Every structure is written in structure tokens, then in C-alpha cells.
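Standup notes
- DV: blocked on the single-chain target, sequence here:
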Amino acid sequence: MHHPGRRSRWSVTGALTGLLLTLSLPQAVPSSADSGSPPARGSAYMGMGVLAHDGASTSADTTETVPRVTQTEGVDVSSHQGDVAWSTLWKAGVKWAYTKATEGTYYTNPSFPQQYNGSYDAGLIRGAYHFATPDTTGGAAQADYFVDHGGGWTKDGKTLPGVLDIEWNPYGDACYGKSQSAMVTWIRDFLNRYKSRTGRAAVIYTATSWWSDCTGDYGGFAGANPLWIARYASTAGTLPAGWSFYTMWQYTSTGPTVGDHDRFNGSLDKVKNLATG
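- DV (later): unblocked, structure below
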């Protein structure tokens, strides 16, 4: 029988023992991985799935995919970096940057003004990227949302064309529940709308293995849309179908100051050429 207000010696002793054990154990930081639940919508960032799906290597596949040419250092950032020390990056030789502007049709990066305008003020050539979620809304709708919330383009010589970040779904099925043909259609809808709104062909950021699995290694965008390849290794490796070279390469997530560092496949003049169109 339970008596309100009365606690047995066993319950008190058990509680004290449990408290002492709790205090003596290392305190783990809760995470979505621990709980098995997906991360919060809006928290995705460029390359979020690369380590988990492609890993990182410095020895495998040492065949160069392009001739050795001058490459120009860049970075990509999102809300995870908060206010960025752009002057530090500039002094370290970083000359271009991309900032996450939007995700789906439901999220805008709260750090976007400081990151996008701050990089410009520090002298970097900068642009914006959109994290695609093909399972939430159509490609054209997401292109409109991107352009309307920082993803536009101006011919000022310091603004790069927008980027479609299309990669593993951090919130569910890797290919967003779409067939390969449906994914190609979604991407085409985004690219066509972005081109009609800005006059520029968007850059496609992706990883070869995702592109192969989720588009069937479709090669039809290579003629118009520059490739930004993701691979954390000593070379960019095999590229998706259609592209014989990459324009940009995200080569690490552990670089100085901001983590994600990239290389533009050419000199600073080539970066400026992409900015001006």
C-alpha cells in the first residue's frame, strides 16, 4: 500500500546511490546520432554527408583528374560558423567564399548578412548557396526562394553565381525518396528557374557517389553548369558523368579558421571571370 508523503529507506538509499553514480560518470552531450532522430530542419550544410558516406582519405585514388595548375583557396560557411573572421582568412590567402543562404523554402541563414557582406568587405569574391531538399517543394519553387533570400547575382565583379548544393539527405532517405529520373527533373527545374531569374547558370555542388546513386550518373548538365566536387582526399577523384574537369573542389572539412576549405581550379583571374560571367 502506498502512503502519501512516506519514503522507504530503500528508496532513499537507491536515489542517493543513483545520484552518486550519475555524478561520477562522464556527461555525454545529447546528439541526434545518440537518439536516432534526424537533425533539426535548417541545420544542414555543404558537405554534411561526405564524411559519413564517402569518408576521408589521403592515399586512395592518386590519379589526378585535371592537369596541375594554379589553384585558388576558398571556403564555404553556414550558420554553424557564426560570425566569421574574414580578415584572418584573407591574410591566410583565402580569396573567395560561399555562404549558405537558404534551405528548402523554409529556412534562411541568420548569419548570412555578416558572412556574405563581411567576406565582400574583406576583399573576397563571394557567392551564396542553397541546400536542396527535393522532398519538400519543387525545384523551381526552391530556386525562387533562394533568389529572393540572398541567392541572386549582380555583375559587380565580386559576386559569384549561385550554387545548388545537392547531396545526401540529412533528414531521411539519401535520395529524398525520388527515383533517378525524378531527381534529374527536380534539378533541371531548379537550374532553369535560377537561370531565368538571374541570367546565370548555377554551379552544382555534389559528390560523385551521391550523383551516381541518385541521378543514375546523369551527364546532361555538364555542358552549362560548373561542377563543385566534394571529396576529402588528396585528389578530387573520379568526377560525375559529363564533367571532364571540376571548377571547384571541397577538399577538407578540417581546414583553419572555418573548417570547410576549397580550391578553385585556376588562378584568381579565373575566379573573377566566373564572377563576371
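- Follow-up: Strands lie at 72-77, 96-103, 107-108, 125-131, 163-165, 203-206, 227-230, 248-255, 259-264.
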